[in-house]
Amino acid sequence: MSVMTHSAADYTLDPASFATIARITHAHAGITLNDGKRQLVYSRLAKQIRKRGLSGFGEFVELMQSDAQVRREAIFALTTNHTKLFRENHHFDHFAQALRPRLIEAAERGRPVRLWSSASSSGEEPYSLAMTLLGDNRAAGARLVQRDVAMLATDLAPHVLSVAKAGRYPGEMAKDVPERYRRVWTTMEGDQMVMAPELKRIIAYRQLNLLDPWPMQGKFDAIFCRNVMIYFDEPTKARLIERFAELLAPGSFLYIGHSERVIGPATDAFEPAGNTIYRRRG
Ligand SMILES: C[S@@+](CC[C@H](N)C(=O)[O-])C[C@H]1O[C@@H](n2cnc3c(N)ncnc32)[C@H](O)[C@@H]1O
């Protein structure tokens, strides 16, 4: 008996299938796939077609339309999760200087401190923010953890959230962490860098699609939404900014990616506070 197998190169991504994949991905995750993404779509989804033993893109697209699980997995595979510890470091410098002293004082008075990393990917952004908040003194940081201090870290893609929750990274990534934080909040286990339990204690990882309703009700002191709006169209970006404005306390900050802008009707709710940093008015 011969078993037919397909290699990724066997499949053809016809224009109609590409258009349907792009439409579904946009409708469910806001992600815009223009013609330049054809090769990316091909290589990411060919793996799923092969894994499922399907005949090609035609059959896969039919399944994407009828089976929610296939659709979800396809969309997760189409996300771009590139990130880095202390990426766009000027945001963490700003947070340390402009916001941290106020948040520590508030936490010591018993007030809740709330942060949100809204497209956290594999955790590098929330861990960088947690280290910046806890500072370079372990005893003082450990005291702060006992207060009402919490960070929500969310992403659409479960495969990156499980890396984030584990808090273990290849040792060579240690070079991205400023030395004063690295010596306090990370340890090396073999060739892996492990995040300290105090960091993990204040971060709650959850799966959340930014397009869906949000369960959070209290106001945030800072929201990081970096390098995800680039994948969205203008109305989706504008709506997202509006929703962030509703959830940010007066005087709090919104941090966005280096090529992103605050747009839409909520623009007036913010004043520029630095390079891609916006202060919530009020
Ligand atoms: C390029 S990464 C950015 C990671 C991090 N914020 C940074 O700047 O380094 C973009 C992340 O956005 C997530 N994403 C894409 N569409 C999303 C959506 N609709 N809701 C929530 N997260 C989404 C992806 O899964 C991916 O992990």
Describe, in plain words, how this protein is organized in 3D.
It is an enzyme of class 2 (transferase). Methylation of the membrane-bound methyl-accepting chemotaxis proteins (MCP) to form gamma-glutamyl methyl ester residues in MCP. There is one protein chain. By secondary structure, the chain is of the alpha/beta class. 44% of the residues lie in helices and 18% in strands. The protein contains 11 helices and 10 strands. It has helices at residues 15-29, 38-51, 57-66, 68-77, 90-108, 124-134, 138-145, 158-166, 179-185, 197-202, 234-247; strands at residues 113-117, 149-155, 168-170, 186-189, 192-195, 203-207, 220-225, 248-256, 270-274, 277-280. A hairpin with a 2-residue loop joins strand 4 (186-189) and strand 5. The longest helix has 19 residues, at 90-108. It starts with 14 loop residues before the first helix and ends with a strand. The protein binds S-adenosylmethionine (SAM). S-adenosylmethionine is lined by residues 29-31, 79-83, 87, 119, 121, 125, 155-157, 160, 209-211, 226-228, 231, 257.
